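One-letter codes give the sequence; the integers encode the fold. A sample entry reads:
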Amino acid sequence: MDYQPKVWQDYTNDYHELAPDVCLQPYIQSYWFSYVTSSSMPDRIIPDLCSDLIVKLNPELDVLQINVCGPSTHFFYSNSDQVTIYFGIRYYLGGMYPFFNQSFKGWKNQFFELGMVEKEMMVALRDKLSGKHSLSELVKSADQYFLECLNRLSAKTVSVPIRMFIKNQPNLLSYAENTTRSLLSERSLQRLFREETGLSPYEVFDILRFQHVYQELIKQPDISHLDLVEKYGFFDQAHYTRKLKKMTGLTPQAIRRHVGILQDKK
């Protein structure tokens, strides 16, 4: 997929991403690891259109829990009151759907145990990941498990209208322009998106626009906010500010300061 999400980058962050097997890359954006202690600052999680399976591990790499984190439409914080290693499988928008026998309606902004919706998958994945002694072994086992799942899938692609909606977004200013390019009517597009992603097309548009702005600010902290307002079709600067605060909890000026400090540290 052409679109590559960016997570919130912090000053000190024990967070790392690894690429999955090439055959899984149309579905899985990355595997990620995060090491958290009771003294760690809460992690700021920003919308990126992805859904995650999150495996909670103790320092000995015993599997404690496997959770599903649906796509978010606003920022939130994540923390832990004990030493914890998180191993995440981050799926592209629509990439998780082929692996589940479930509708994704109602998964937006939700966090729940995998066993609540896919008990068989939870047991099989726990067995596959248990008894490992290194993070590289966990990644290798995850690759093996999801490649086996992929070989059993009847529908092996992310739906074309979802892929095209994301592909068209950088070249179009408005939501209306993007929906008129779709192969489906807007009503059918709404049904497809909610079924396979848990989000509406407009929510996807909104998050994509935010991600493009955020990634531009990472690359060019001194870029004019007014230029971004015009480039990405916000109504005005107040609209731009509201959207960025919803997605990050920060004003545009605070985001600029944050990414500027990160640039200075490189």
